[in-house]
Design a protein that fits this description.
Blueprint lengths: L8 H4 L4 E2 L10 H7 L15 H21 L6 E4 L2 H15 L7 E5 L4 H10 L5 E5 L9 H7 L4 E5 L13 H10 L3 E5 L11 H4 L3 E5 L10 E5 L25 H39 L4 E2 L10 E5 L5 H7 L3 E2 L6 E2 L2 E2 L3 H5 L4 H5 L1 E5 L6 H19 L1
Parallel strand pairs: 1-11, 3-4, 3-5, 5-6, 6-7
Antiparallel strand pairs: 2-8, 7-8, 9-10, 10-14, 12-13
Length: 391
Amino acid sequence: MTDVRCPTSDEAGSRPVYLDYAATTPVDPEVAAAMLPWLGERFGNPSSAHFYGCEARKKVEESREEVAALIGAEPDEIVFAGSATEANHLAILGCVRALVRDGRRDLAASAVEHPSVAGPFSLLAPEGWNVSLLPVDSSGRVNLQVAERLIGPETAFVSVMLANNETGTVQPVVEIADLARSRGARLHVDAAQAIGKIPVDVNTLGADLLTLAGHKFYAPKGIGVLYVRRGIPLQPLMVGGGQERGLRPGTENVPAIIGLGVAARLVRNNLGREVRRMERLRERLYRRLAGAIPKIVLNGSSDDRLPNTLNLSFPGVRGGDLLAEAPWVCASTGNACHGVIPLPSPVLRAMGFPDERALGAVRLSLGRFTIPEEIDLASDVLVAAWNKLVF
């Protein structure tokens, strides 16, 4: 078993400040309350024809309608999965393999995709598919001029995330969708980081397939969504029961699906107000840090980015060392780490940054329960930690 050392209460203080909403969100109390009965007396299998099964099936379909309404889809275009990772695999492997008779063998994905997207593409290369990576500029956005050359008449499938998980940079998905459509290619969009922070509409985006992660917008872990536009060919990755139209067999996770539906409704009802609040808090945090630390650098787009995410490179230090010095600020570096050797973020390297800048990066991400007092406290602690390390 890996030895994981967590900060003690003395190190972390009595009230750690959580600034890692991009990693996961707490379950909203309204979501938890809606789930609770389905963990107890309302335990039916949705495939059963009796009373307990029928009431479970009814709630699953109500949640499907809520999720569809959130992203501008139809309920029969929503497939529930165990996670966004599973949904990404189903979207990419399932669609690409269904297109094999098309004769085209080229695929494309951005150079800054999440590993759960990059991974399936790596499985397809040995099957004879040619994978092109769409480069990004220094803001982390796909270079559309290069994309126009790489997405050609032989391209069958394209995958581009809506918002990056490390920098929060929002991709020009609408333009990429137009380009893919003009070439006859299918487009998959990983929207796991975007949902709950910016509007997500499958028709506006032009997505053929789109992925969501429940735990990124205050639903529980262990539930994901794949939107599949009507008419898009898709092969299941597993066989067995006929659940989810046979695309994802297995008894549905009813409590999580019900929680997901409530979470979707809360996002739809509160998005505009929440976006403005998170933007104000994000800018407050940035001003306090930039005002106290000379040469701190923002990584990612200054305009096209999520309202809750700051990726900053702290000069003269490594991000992991900074967070270790401030253990009660719960944030992340976004870096891979093998053993004791920190490695530069592949995302920041794809943006053309030198290793020193990439290694100094820290991702600070806010959410629904972040308050101004926490912003002020976290910035003070990070500044003090930086001063201690540098001086």
